[in-house]
Design a protein that fits this description.
CATH architecture: 2-Layer Sandwich
Shape: globular
Number of strands: 8
Distance between the termini: 32 Å
Helix content: 25-40%
Strand content: 15-25%
CATH topology: Peptide Methionine Sulfoxide Reductase, Chain A
Order of helices and strands: EHEHEHEEEHEEH
Strand order of the largest sheet: 7-6-1-3-2-8
CATH class: Alpha Beta
Number of domains: 1
Radius of gyration: 15 Å
Number of helices: 5
């Protein structure tokens, strides 16, 4: 069995973000849901109100021998705009913030390195606003939201892979 690590990333609407992340070689599985808030067992309808503190989040299980965490995070920074506070495309609110929910201190250190690398690259105008948050809980979204773009080709997404190098 392959070695596996889990990290939780938020970068706007989770439908498009999940679709791009799941295709990276070394990603073993993805699941969309919610992290970072103050309500337990939250659902999509509650999160859309914008007052739960939760962000739309991707749970990512990956093999760090095939996909080092830093490489995964740099890809994350290519598929969303980490300079727009609480917004991706037309989606606005704290539930669409850019965040990395770290499960341990090693992840936090690697995430800080990745953020610094993106910041000094000057590939984005403005400062990186991605927050580093300690992981506390993940609540899976309803089944209709899982693999949404696969189920609904041409469905809404504000994510794309930017042609940038950090």
């Amino acid at each position: 069995m392959a070695y596996m690590e889990t990290i939780y990333l938020a970068g706007g609407c989770y439908w498009g973000l999940e679709d791009l992340i799941r295709q990276i070689p070394g990603v073993l599985s993805t699941q969309v849901g919610f992290s970072g808030g103050h309500i337990k067992n939250v659902c999509y309808k509650e999160v859309t109100k914008g007052d739960t503190g939760h962000a739309e989040t991707i749970k990512i299980e990956f093999n760090p021998e095939l996909l080092p965490l830093k490489q995964l995070l740099l890809h994350f920074f290519k598929v969303h705009d980490p300079t727009t506070p609480n917004q991706q495309g037309n989606d606005r609110g704290t539930q669409y913030r850019s965040a990395i929910f770290c499960t341990n201190t090693d992840q936090k250190e690697i995430a800080m390195e990745a953020i610094n690398l993106v910041e000094v690259s000057a590939c984005y105008p403005g400062y990186i606003v991605t927050s580093l948050e300690d992981f506390s809980a993940f609540y899976p979204a309803e089944e209709s939201h899982q693999k949404y773009i696969q189920k609904n080709p041409g469905g809404y997404t504000c994510h794309f892979i930017r042609d940038i190098t950090f």
